[in-house]
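Section 5: illustrative case.
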């Protein structure tokens, strides 16, 4: 799925402007895609996150890899790992760690995540989610 298709899917779930982030499965390079129309698509394997702040105290997530789970929602005070929240525990633990380190994460986020990292590439999907979460938090909550 390309960036423009991801943008259309994001709009199906959320009604807000968004930023696009990507971590490559090839070289662990983190980038923010500023303009989808100018993106050259050289990073074929990786994880994309489309994200916007929301005015709630909630984080809402959709993964196209687990779309059947729908939107998973939790508050910024519910950052303990839960079996119910499955893959989002990687994101939750990274947010919890950054809050403990002093980041002022005082409003929620709406996220769409999509990854296509094959197992043999060397960067796991869980590691890519943790790395992207850290970069996104640092970018959004300066």
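Designed sequence:
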């Amino acid at each position: 799925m390309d960036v423009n298709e991801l943008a259309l899917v994001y709009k199906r779930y959320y009604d807000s402007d968004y930023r696009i982030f990507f971590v490559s499965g090839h070289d662990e390079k983190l980038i923010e895609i500023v303009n989808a129309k100018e993106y050259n698509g050289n990073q074929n394997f990786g994880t994309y996150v489309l994200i916007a702040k929301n005015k709630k105290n909630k984080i809402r997530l959709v993964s196209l890899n687990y779309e059947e789970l729908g939107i998973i929602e939790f508050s910024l005070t519910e950052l303990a790992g839960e079996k119910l929240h499955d893959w989002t525990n990687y994101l939750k633990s990274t947010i919890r760690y950054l809050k403990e380190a002093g980041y002022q994460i005082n409003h929620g986020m709406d996220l769409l995540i999509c990854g296509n990292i094959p197992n043999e590439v060397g960067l796991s999907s869980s590691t890519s989610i943790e790395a992207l979460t850290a970069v996104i938090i640092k970018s959004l909550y300066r």
